[in-house]
Amino acid sequence: MTIDFLDIRFDMIWNYKELFIRGIWVTLGLTVIGYLGGIILGLFLGMGKLSKRKWIYYPCKYYVDFFRGTPLLVQILLIHLAVIPSIFGHSLGYFVSGATALLLNCGAYNAEIIRAGIQSIEKGQTEAARSLGMPSGVAMKNIILPQAFRRMVPPLGNELIALLKDSSLVTVIAANDLLYAGKVVAGAYSRFWEPYITVAILYLMLTFVFTKVIAYVEKRFSNSYVPSQRRRIFTFGRS
Amino acid sequence: MIKIEGLHKSFGQLEVLKGIDYEVKEKEIICVIGPSGSGKSTFLRCINLLEDITDGAVFINGLKVNDSGTNINEIRKDVGMVFQQFNLFPHMNVLNNITISPRKIRKMNPKEAEQLAVELLEKVGLADKAKSFPEQLSGGQMQRVAIARALAMQPKIMLFDEPTSALDPEMVKEVLDVMKQLAFEGMTMVVVTHEMGFAKEMGDRVLFMDEGKLVEEGTPDAIFNNSTNERTKAFLSMVL
């Protein structure tokens, strides 16, 4: 097999540029909805997994076990072809199915991150809060979560990047995400280098931007709690 | 004011408290001494139910603490606690550390709570540290803030769990001075401590604990100078 680099035809990508642009928006939309929903879901699941009440603990545990223990691809197909049609009687479209699957999956992973973050806060913090008369919910919201959140930022950032890439799996239900745009072009021209390299580069650009945002948030929330001593993120000129 | 009846506490197989009976009267300063592992801290932590009580009962102002019908949060409002490791909230400045519980639990308005905090900071000698964060304070300063934080709930009883054990020697005095001031103001206090000087000087009653039991109880003079109990004498000869 020979690869003729002189024969690269990016004009065909250009012809389909609307499809790629739309793909970027769909991918971003799925990722952001799945991630934000996954954080809220993960917060409840993570706290549920810390509950001493068995009827709260076990459903949360089994949920997390199921969604972490089965392939996301299978979950997407199951939700799109089986769960949603049997609840609503018909499909709600690829976007709803895709976003739902990503959200439910991301929630399970975030649950573990959030649970670990909460558990990492010294027991003395809870004891001090409780000794002041705070009910456990008040202590969790005001004392534990604000501290735990800082420790969750790096792993939650990884989860965002992972989700962005995993969102490409929705292509299987014909969602017109970024990967789907590549597939369409590949199918139309029977050429594979240009469309998939383009897709890869576009994903890389997206993860690059997300990585920068995460790095910003990480620095913002790392180091000292003292505002004046927080590390400067951007320094212009001499400091 | 605090009544303890047949208090037992086990961690799994390990029995830490083996039946303790005691009654603390209003405005009394009770100092609990004893070797490490004797159950003094557990004893203290059972009073405000930071540890579940295995058997027996603790009553505070006639209310049974370990009763499912008792709202423990209501009782804890009246029982302040100071920890060995300070346990200040690191994400809040000193002022917020002190005002959070009056605001959230006593529903005090923020202005009032702030005024109370400023008064308490003056009392513990840290009026200039209101805007500082815990990480900017020394150990002694942190512990004084922790005392102010507990006092902000206007408790009737204060529990001290080895409040000076984690401090550098030169910072012990500033914390003890604040505690003495509290004692003079008539606060009911239960103090688990290794500071024998404080127990001698300030204690109304001294409790000597060993191996989960209350070995001896009496005035500081009776315990420190006139004890006839072999175990007490052996312990005191080691620490004095």
UniProtKB/TrEMBL annotation, chain B:
The question of whether ATP-binding is a record keyword is answered with yes
Molecular function in Gene Ontology: ABC-type amino acid transporter activity; ATP binding; ATP hydrolysis activity
Ranges annotated as spanning the membrane: none
- Fetch the Pfam families from UniProt: ABC_tran (PF00005)
Q: Which CDD domains match?
A: ABC_HisP_GlnQ
User: Which keywords belong to this entry?
Assistant: ATP-binding, Nucleotide-binding, Transport
Instruction: Specify the domain of life of the species encoding this protein.
Output: Bacteria
User: Per the database record, which ranges form the ABC transporter domain?
Assistant: 2-236
Keyword hit for Disulfide bond: no
Family, per entry: Belongs to the ABC transporter superfamily.
This chain belongs to the protein called: Peptide ABC transporter ATP-binding protein
Q: Which organism is it from?
A: Virgibacillus profundi
